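Attaching the record inline, Q. Sequence:
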Amino acid sequence: MIARTVISLGLAVAAGVTVLDQLSKAWVLHFFGETGCAAHYLPVTRFFDLVLTCNTGISFGLFNRSDLGSLVFAVAGAVITILLLFWLSRIRSVLMAIALGLVIGGAVGNVVDRLRFDGVIDFLYFHAWSWGWPAFNLADAAICLGVASILLDGMLSRREAPHALQSEQAIHGEDVSR
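Structure, as predicted:
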């Protein structure tokens, strides 16, 4: 019963991220009066601009304008999503379910873009002085938060493991004073 609840939570997070991502991209396209990939720029503050750009490569614009094509990246994203769904079906941790849901939802949002627009719609651009972070979207943010949560879970699990081992050794009467 608990396993189904954890899996359902991960799937709900993934669905929520995908929907919010696609709604935000639809809003940006509507705001700029576009139906697909285009280039627009609107300064909002000294450190943030609303932009409309299309990333045909992978993360942070790597392989942008590559001969590989968006279909290759869409298929790769779909395969990764399937692997993440399999991983989600095997976990029991609420934190991991949420983390995997964030990554899955972000991946699905970006795969949908690749299939619809032949690239990923990015629109959030933060900068300071001459430094700027590559434009990104809500799917990208969800993926980053999910990966950070997976790493955090891994670090917390490793910290608990020695303590759990000592407790088990104490139960069996082994010397734990080493």
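The chain has a mean pLDDT of 86. The two ends are 40 Å apart (CA to CA).

More tomorrow.
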